[in-house]
């Protein structure tokens, strides 16, 4: 017994516990034990270590295609199922995973008819080498569909439905246009203002946000300039290289009809030379006296992403890298007329449910957290959702385990 207590004393000394204590008395010797305390990352980012550490839902791989401009970009002639197949195959090949072990594939997608996209996704899984025993389904929560897919897989693994799952996202806006809802219920729409606002185009909700919160045209243009410059700098420095899977495809010349084989390996919607003077010349796109233009709006895009999740214990058993821990997810509703404010409500909810602790965004976020090192322990991915909602998820770096340096004496 005395030897065991002495070993504990030496161990605790090396672990540099957060609270000071003395081993001067034999009584204290006998009452001292290892227990969880605040993390080494600091009180503001701390949470108590749960006993079910091995049950953490972790991400071991996250890849995406380049994101290309719809109708004019590199994927304008690439079928949606080919885009998804590329990232599904990459997830398996880069982890040496047996595809038959995957319990489910959930694909977030918005614009196409549900049954059509579900069929395309099933075909993509077969292209990628998954056996017919592996099921696949789609999920649609508007703009957060990819993130919802990842959250659904995380929840299913946590519930014990299966051990390994893939959350993915897919959109092919070249062929799947944003259209107004058909066959509305005119009686209900006329009687409920907020229901009517669910039908507002996103451009108009953008104008509503700008008007309600006093966001000027110049501020929006400046944000666009900063975004393009940062994206261009990140591309030039190779920051997206680890997350992007090059896609070999074809491009058809619209004038001659001639096909050309190409390999797309970078996002093609970034405009590094964008400046305020150029943006200032653009006319409002949605409202004559508005401030939202083609230059300060997000582009319509084609692309896909996939994220591989499992429990930490299984990832360790397989020797797979733990890129991040899926800590929490939250989806909330807001006024449909200003649906763009959704993230401002969803992020606090997700952070709160994580404790003080679309698939494409997850891949980018995890790689950026890795680059920033251990000073960047947590990351948040969020987006607004059409019809007035917002979603957010909190991720933790996979290598941010505090290595028990938060050990302290437990007192009864």
UniProtKB/TrEMBL annotation:
<dbReference type="InterPro" id="IPR020615">
    <property type="entry name" value="Thiolase_acyl_enz_int_AS"/>
</dbReference>
<dbReference type="InterPro" id="IPR016039">
    <property type="entry name" value="Thiolase-like"/>
</dbReference>
<dbReference type="InterPro" id="IPR020617">
    <property type="entry name" value="Thiolase_C"/>
</dbReference>
<dbReference type="GO" id="GO:0010124">
    <property type="term" value="P:phenylacetate catabolic process"/>
</dbReference>
<dbReference type="Pfam" id="PF02803">
    <property type="entry name" value="Thiolase_C"/>
</dbReference>
<dbReference type="GO" id="GO:0005777">
    <property type="term" value="C:peroxisome"/>
</dbReference>
<keyword id="KW-0012">Acyltransferase</keyword>
<dbReference type="InterPro" id="IPR020616">
    <property type="entry name" value="Thiolase_N"/>
</dbReference>
<dbReference type="GO" id="GO:0006635">
    <property type="term" value="P:fatty acid beta-oxidation"/>
</dbReference>
<feature type="domain" description="Thiolase N-terminal">
    <location>
        <begin position="57"/>
        <end position="313"/>
    </location>
</feature>
<dbReference type="InterPro" id="IPR050215">
    <property type="entry name" value="Thiolase-like_sf_Thiolase"/>
</dbReference>
<comment type="similarity">
    <text>Belongs to the thiolase-like superfamily. Thiolase family.</text>
</comment>
<dbReference type="InterPro" id="IPR002155">
    <property type="entry name" value="Thiolase"/>
</dbReference>
<protein>
    <recommendedName>
        <fullName>acetyl-CoA C-acyltransferase</fullName>
        <ecNumber>2.3.1.16</ecNumber>
    </recommendedName>
</protein>
<keyword id="KW-0808">Transferase</keyword>
<dbReference type="InterPro" id="IPR020610">
    <property type="entry name" value="Thiolase_AS"/>
</dbReference>
<dbReference type="Pfam" id="PF00108">
    <property type="entry name" value="Thiolase_N"/>
</dbReference>
<feature type="domain" description="Thiolase C-terminal">
    <location>
        <begin position="355"/>
        <end position="397"/>
    </location>
</feature>
<dbReference type="GO" id="GO:0003988">
    <property type="term" value="F:acetyl-CoA C-acyltransferase activity"/>
</dbReference>
């Amino acid at each position: 017994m005395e030897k065991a207590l002495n070993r504990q004393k030496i161990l605790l000394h090396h672990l540099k516990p957060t609270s000071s204590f003395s081993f001067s008395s034999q009584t204290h010797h006998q009452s001292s034990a290892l227990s969880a305390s605040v993390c080494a990352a600091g009180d503001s980012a701390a949470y108590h270590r749960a006993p079910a550490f091995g049950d953490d839902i972790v991400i071991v791989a996250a890849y995406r295609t380049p994101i290309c401009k719809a109708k004019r970009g590199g994927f304008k002639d690439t079928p949606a199922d080919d885009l998804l197949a590329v990232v599904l195959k990459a997830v398996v090949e880069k982890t040496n995973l047996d595809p038959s072990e995957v319990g489910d594939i959930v694909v977030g997608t918005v614009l196409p008819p549900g049954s059509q996209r579900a069929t395309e996704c099933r075909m993509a899984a077969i292209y990628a080498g998954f056996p017919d025993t592996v099921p696949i389904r789609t999920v649609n929560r508007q703009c957060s569909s990819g993130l919802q897919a990842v959250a659904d897989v995380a929840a299913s693994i946590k519930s014990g439905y299966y051990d390994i799952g893939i959350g993915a996202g897919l959109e092919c806006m070249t062929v799947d246009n944003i259209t107004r809802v058909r066959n509305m219920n005119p009686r209900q729409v006329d009687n409920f203002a907020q229901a009517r606002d669910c039908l507002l185009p996103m451009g108009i909700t953008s104008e509503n946000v700008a008007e309600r919160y006093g966001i000027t045209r110049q501020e929006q243009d400046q944000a666009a300039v900063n975004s393009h410059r940062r994206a261009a700098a990140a591309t030039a420095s190779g920051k997206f290289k680890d997350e992007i899977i090059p896609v070999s495809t074809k491009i058809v010349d619209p004038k001659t009809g001639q096909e050309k084989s190409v390999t797309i390996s970078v996002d093609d919607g970034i405009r590094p030379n964008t400046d305020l003077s150029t943006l200032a010349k653009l006319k409002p796109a949605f409202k004559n006296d508005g401030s939202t233009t083609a230059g300060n709006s997000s582009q319509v895009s084609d692309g896909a992403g996939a994220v591989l999740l499992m429990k930490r214990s299984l990832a360790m058993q397989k020797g797979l890298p733990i890129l991040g821990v899926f800590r929490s997810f939250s989806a909330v509703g807001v006024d449909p007329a200003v649906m763009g404010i959704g993230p401002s409500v969803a992020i606090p909810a997700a952070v709160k449910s994580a404790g003080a602790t679309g698939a494409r965004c997850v891949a980018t976020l995890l790689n950026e957290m890795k680059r920033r090192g251990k000073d960047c322990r947590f990351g948040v991915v969020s987006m607004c959702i059409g019809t007035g909602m917002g979603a957010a998820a909190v991720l933790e770096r996979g290598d941010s385990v505090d290595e028990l340096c938060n050990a302290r004496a437990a007192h009864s």
